Every structure is written in C-alpha cells, then in structure tokens.
Amino acid sequence: MANSRSSGLSRAAPGSRYAAPSSEPDVFSSLVGEIYDATLDPTLWRAVLHKARDYLGGSAAAVFSKDGSTKSLNVYYDCGGIDPHYTQLYLQKYAKYDPSTTAHLLAEIEQPVCTVDVMPLEEFETTRFYQEWGRPQGLTDFGAVALEKSATGTAMFGIFREKRQGAVDEDTLWRLRRIVPHLRRAMLIGRTIELKTAEAATLADTLDGLSAGMYLIDATGRIVHANSRGQDLLGEGAALRAAGGRLLPTHADAARALNEIYASANSGDAALGRKGIAVPLASRDGEPYVAHVLPLTSGARRRAGASYAAVAAVFVRKATIDIPSAPEIIAKHFSLTPTELRVLLAIVQVGGVPETAEALGIGDATVKTHLHRLFCKTGATRQADLVKLAAGFSTPLAS
Q1: Among 87, 169, 94, 177, which residue's Cα sits nearest to residue 130?
Q2: What pTM was computed for the model?
Q3: Is the pLDDT of residue 374 over 50?
C-alpha cells in the first residue's frame, strides 16, 4: 500500500539504538513467549498474530507464501483487518497485479520490504492494484519480511497499515526486526516437528516418534533426553556425538554456537534473538544437517523443561538445499530493480507493451521506460531477445 515516505527510505540499521517505550520489554517478552508456545500448538498462531499486529501498530497481520512459478498465494495464518471478500478478490484476480510480488520473491531473509522499496509513491498510486484493491479498503502501507525461501517462492510475515495508522515508520521497522528472528525460529521448528498439537507436559513422549532427532538439553549442554532418531544420530556419529553426557557437534564452530544458544535460552525466550536460528552441522561424510533450538524456559513449554531440568529442545534433521529462483538469478546478474524485473517477467508471460501495461496496472509509457532500461542493462535490442534471455535462465529443477 502507498505511504508518504520518499523512495529513498532511511532505515535504522538492525543494531542501531531506538528509544523504546518503558512498557516495551514486558510486551516484547510476552509476545516472544507466545510465539514459541505456538510452535507446539499451531492453534495459538491466530492469537499470536493478533498480539504481533498490536505490537507493530497495524490493522492486520499474516504469515503467507508467494510462489513465483505458479503465481499463487498461500495464507497459513492471519488475523483481522482484511475483509474476506477482498482476500478472495486478491487470490482470484489481483495477485497478478500486485507490484510487490517480485520484491517479496527477491527479498533477503529478515529484511523488511515496504511499498517504497517497490516503486515510487506517485507511480504506485496509479496502479490498477492500488486503485481497485488497496484504496477501497483504506490501506496505506504493507510491510513484509521473508522468513524462509525455496527454489520458487518465499514464506513471509506481513503487517497491513490503514491511513489512520500511517505508513510503516522507523518504530515499526525496529519492532519488526526484533520479532522476526523468533518468528523464523518458531516456523522452522514447527515445520520440522510437523505436529498439529503437542502437550508441552508430555513433550518427550509426544516427539519420540519424530523423523527428526530431538534432544532435551540443560544449560550446560548435557543431554537429559533423546528421542529414538536422536539416539540413532548419536550412534552414527556423523554430525553429532555424546561426550561426558553432553551433546557435541563434530565441528567446533557448531559446538560453540549451540553452547551460546543454551546459555541464552536459560535467560529466557527473548534473549535468544538471532542466535543460531538454524545451526549448520557438517557431517564427516559430507551430508549437511541443521539444528533448530526451541527454548523451554517460559510459557507452556516450561512444564516440559521442568520435568527434565531442560532449558531447550534441539531438533536435528538433514538440511535441504535452497536454490535461488530463476527471477532472482536474473535480477542479480543484470542488477535489475524490482520494477524492471516485473516488466521483464510480464513481457515474457503476456507479450507486448499494451498487454504488460494492462497486466501490471501501469501506463504504456511507464512500461516503455522500463523496457528501455532493460535493453540497456541486458544488451537486448528486441522484446524477443528478452524472452530468450529469460528462457536461458530457466532451471530443470523447477516444477
């Protein structure tokens, strides 16, 4: 949605200082605790998003994914603000006109993307997407952050802002950057354990049948419980081993990273921050593994930890390889802006200038301007050359 900032957005760096309200620590800690509780009970996600929406000062929030190959949107969890009628309209009609789609697909993990990162305000307000979908709802901005990327798509958390709330500002960006690492960790762990509901009081028994290795760990790294797959991994000794009762990766860097996470987890959920959201574990035979750590020191998860004097649950599984999508590779190779990439993809998918202008909801003159820039950057001289260029970057791994 549109906002009042210039396209040259000045943002606070992730580590910069911000004068937070006095109530900030309590509100933030409570929210983070509930985020991790939702890892074991996905039915809590809607309530978590309500709280995140209020914390960020928005009208609605959602966890969703966009797929560049199928041009589809999948909403996993959402709360408030967006009328179901407009949600359906977006899915059926306006998703292909949304100028933020390419920016979302190309977004770096944990890096916020707002309207001004996509195109200038004046240009955005003339698009069909804004005029027919955003403006009637009174929306003024949308901020989103990539949580995870695959070969063709991106999973994201997003916050809508209405005119009464104003555009996404530095306060919102600062808060967004604070909660995103915890959202990422919770989502990755949730995908790893693949449970609908797990009672924290019986965590060890509930997770014993997981295909992922699971270890309950105390603050010193000592194993107080391991599920069946976890014991198998220790027996194999490829990526992990037990020494003196402590869980130790075969590589020293990973061992240090996990020890720091255990110590932080003992200090509470919020203390984890960005530490080791996904710790890579290299095995002796070259097979890549990854470890995710769930703190057990507060919220509903504390019941599980208390029975074992555990401060964290460690989940270990084989890592998947993320392959950049063809559009991402093209954009980086030719230094294309999000808008230039959108025009290139539209030319490939729908044809000439009038058709591209209609599909993107912008004027013919704007398309011609971006087309000229594409010719300059790629060395192409005709639209047919752009189609051949894009085809050359296709991957046989794409479905």
Answers
A1: 94
A2: 0.76
A3: yes
